[in-house]
Each structure stands twice: as structure tokens, then as C-alpha cells.
Amino acid sequence: MMVQEQATQAVKSVRTAAEAEELIVKHLPLVGHLVREVLARVPVHVRREELMSAGNLALVAAAKSFDDSRGAPFAAFAVVRVRGALMDELRGQDWASRSVRVKARKMNAVQDEFVSKHGRTPTTAEIAELMEVETREVTAVQDDVQRSALLSLQGFTGGVLEEVVPERQPGPEETLLGRERIGYLHSAIDALPDRLRTVVRGYFFEERPMAEIAEELGVHESRVSQLRAEAIALLRDGLNSQLDPERLPEPARPDGCAARRKAAYYASVAAQGTMRSRLSHTSSLGVPVIAKTA
């Protein structure tokens, strides 16, 4: 009897290995697609080969651990594993170099001082003049900063508009917290000023070209890039205002115009909806719900 059970287990293992190999071969293009998607949002010096390697290893691990009895398609399961591996690889590469971080801090200080003095956000040209650098250098720093913030948001929400399956079943409390986070992200986007909301929805959700968004707003592409960076920073603060207030940055001038505008935004995020409406963006399992279009 024991010999028969061992033989059955051996046959099952062989079949499982063969099925795993078939899944890997069939879904290799998925890794390439996800790597291209990431490379489109990070600086050019990020190494494609290392991302591909991390993605392929994650695909192999996903194929070996996939349980089709859960009723989920392998592609959805693999996307979670591969994307997670790519995010880990990016963080490991630490592509936001020290020089970029130093310039970003200086740029933020310049912007805060300008807003406090003039009551409005400075243009890219004005920032460049105050920092004594070329305009294109300011734009490059803004791009790197918003990409870094985007990665943090992606990790924070676990994928906002995609129907994905978690690689493990979280507990009820963890699922509820995750659903609340996604709901607050939607609230934070809805509470953005009109222009910033248009940029976020157009660029990140509808994947429209920046030139098209710029034409709609009647501004140059460089201005859209600046608005995009401003929106990402505001979204992070909006989320933290509701979920982790201790992470909010201290305003340079608590009674200043910029601080009052941010406080009004935080209040708007809180007032956007109820717990029920925030949870409506996800299923009971924490899977984001795709909005139906007419």
C-alpha cells in the first residue's frame, strides 16, 4: 500500500513539474510586458537585464506554487508575484541616487519658500532660476521624484485598478485595512484640485500621452510634468493624513497659505465618503473592483 502511494505521489510530482514548465513558457512574454511597463516610469539608467532576471525568477516561483483549486487564473496570480519582485529589485538598486535626493530636498525648500512669499506654486523656470540650474535639470528631478513616489503608492495600494489575486490569503483585519487604504486613495484623488486630478487620471489611469493632456489643459508638457509631481506628493500626504498622520511633514510656516491649503485638502479627503463607500472599491476579499463603463 505504501509503495502504491509513493508511486502515485511520484506521478503527481512529474505531472506538476510538467505543468509548471508549460505555465512558465506560456507566460514568459508577461514578464517582458511588465518590465517594459516599469521601465517606462523609471530613469533610463535602471538596468533592464536585472529586472528581467528578477521577473523570470518570480514567474518560476509562481508556477511552482500556483494552486488552480482556488479558481483564479494563473496570469492574475503571476502578475502579483512578478510585479512584487520588480518593485523589490528597484528598491534594491536604489535608483534614486544621493544627488537626486539632495536636489529634490533643495527643490522642495525652494518651492515652500516661494509659496510662502508669493501665495502660488512657482513655475519650472522660476524654480530653476532660484536653484541656479537649467530648466531641464529641474524637470528631470521632478520626473525622478514622482516616479519614486509612484512606486511607493503602488506598493501601498497593492495595485489600484487591476483585478488581481493576492498570493496568500490575509486575515480579516489585514484585508479590511487594505480595502480602506484603496478607498482612501480614491478619495484623495477625488479631492485633488481640478487640474491635478485631470493629470493623475489622464496619465496614470487612462494612460494618455502627456502631450494630449497638455493640449487639453492649454499648457506646455513641462508644466504637466510639474503638475504630475505636485499631485503625487499631495496624494501621499492626503493618504497619510487619514492613515498615518505622524508621517506628515511639518509645514515650514504653519500659519502660511500653503499650510492652510493642505489642511483644507486633508479635510476634503476625510469628507469624500463614508467607510461603506470606501470599501465599495474592493470586493470582500480585498480585490479592487474595475469600474463599469457605459
Automatic annotation (TrEMBL):
Keyword NADP among UniProt keywords: no
Pfam families associated with the record: Sigma70_r2, Sigma70_r3, Sigma70_r4
Residue ranges occupied by any RNA polymerase sigma-70 region domain in the UniProt entry: 23-95, 104-174, 188-236
Keyword line: DNA-binding, Sigma factor, Transcription, Transcription regulation
Record flagged with keyword NADP: no
Signal peptide bounds: none
InterPro entries membership: RNA_pol_sigma-70_dom (IPR014284), RNA_pol_sigma70 (IPR000943), RNA_pol_sigma70_r2 (IPR007627), RNA_pol_sigma70_r3 (IPR007624), RNA_pol_sigma70_r4 (IPR007630), RNA_pol_sigma_r2 (IPR013325), RNA_pol_sigma_r3/r4-like (IPR013324)
Domain of life: Bacteria
GO molecular function, one term: sigma factor activity
Any one GO BP annotation for this protein: DNA-templated transcription initiation
PANTHER family: RNA POLYMERASE SIGMA FACTOR FLIA (PTHR30385:SF7), SIGMA FACTOR F FLAGELLAR (PTHR30385)
UniProt protein name: FliA/WhiG family RNA polymerase sigma factor
Originating species: Actinosynnema pretiosum
Lineage of the organism: Bacteria, Bacillati, Actinomycetota, Actinomycetes, Pseudonocardiales
